[in-house]
Design a protein that fits this description.
The complex is a heterodimer of chains A (about 120) and B (about 110). Helix content of chain A is about 0%, strand content about 50%. Chain A has no helices and 11 strands. In chain A, the strands form 2 sheets. In chain A, strands 2, 4, 5, 6, 9, 10 and 11 form a 7-stranded mixed sheet that branches. Chain A starts with a strand and ends with a strand. With about 110 residues, chain B is mainly β. In chain B, about 0% of the residues lie in helices and about 60% in strands. Chain B is built from no helices and 11 strands. In chain B, strands 2, 4, 5, 9, 10 and 11 form a 6-stranded mixed sheet that branches. In chain B, strands 1-3-8-7-6 form a 5-stranded antiparallel sheet, with no helix packed on it. Chain B is globular, with a radius of gyration of 14 Å. The chains are: A mainly beta (about 120), B mainly beta (about 110).
Chain lengths: ~120, ~110
């Protein structure tokens, strides 16, 4: 069974631009969560989606948004990029309806660099 | 404010010894606690989950304890191997409407051959 895939793996953008990251969960997983990882703040929860609905959102500004499609694939978007948005963005999927209550299967991440 | 603390200093041990990593939390009453392993440049990998009503969980060479009175979880790797060298993260989940995992900053483990 294929793992969680994320595209692209690396991305370089400039301040003010916007970016869209994609995540394909493990087949059969309907819950997808997004995290931001930086050396200073560690792993921080962005949001969780289940059956195309956002179930919870972390403490990030409205520039960070996401969505989930009917096939459970998810995208996250960051608008008006800032230097501080440079990070590893991780997507995780989980089985069943309990989402983050279950083990999370993480993808390899997208490394975003904002210049 | 809510806080999770893991030893930020790297833990260096000799191969064959038991590694013990600590996760302390304040102002939480977590329902679940999870441990993950992360290698450089890769996403975390789930290791163990323990619930608030469980004292201990084991999986092969791994053992996790959860003391809700001390607000502490201990993660043990017995008969450690150089391949166990990685960063280990604890993550807590509150059993409230907020369905979000909160991660500690992680402890880097280095097992010397």
């Amino acid at each position: 069974k294929a793992g969680v895939t994320q595209t692209p793996r690396y991305l370089i953008k400039t301040r003010g631009q916007q970016v869209t990251l994609s995540c394909s969960p493990i087949s059969g997983h309907r819950s997808v969560s997004w995290y931001q990882q930086t050396p200073g703040q560690g792993l921080q929860f962005l949001f969780e989606y289940f059956s195309e609905t956002q179930r919870n959102k972390g403490n990030f500004p409205g520039r960070f948004s996401g969505r989930q499609f009917s096939n459970s694939r998810s995208e996250m978007n960051v608008s008006t990029l800032e230097l501080g948005d440079s990070a590893l963005y991780l997507c995780a999927s989980s089985k069943g309806t309990s989402g983050v209550y279950n083990e999370q299967f993480f993808g390899p991440g997208t490394r975003l660099t904002v210049l | 404010s809510q806080k999770i603390e893991q030893n930020s200093e790297a833990l260096n041990i000799q191969e064959g010894k038991t590694a013990t990593l600590t996760c302390n939390y304040t102002n939480y009453s977590p329902a679940y606690l999870q441990w993950y392993r992360q290698d450089p440049g890769r996403g975390p990998v789930f290791l163990l989950l323990i619930r608030e009503n469980e004292k201990e969980k084991r999986k092969e060479r791994l053992k996790v304890t959860f003391d809700t009175t001390l607000k502490q979880s201990l993660f043990h790797i017995t008969a450690s191997q150089p391949a166990d060298s990685a960063t280990y993260l604890c993550a807590l989940l509150m059993d409230t409407g907020r369905r979000a995992l909160t991660f500690g900053s992680g402890t880097r483990l280095q097992v010397q051959p």
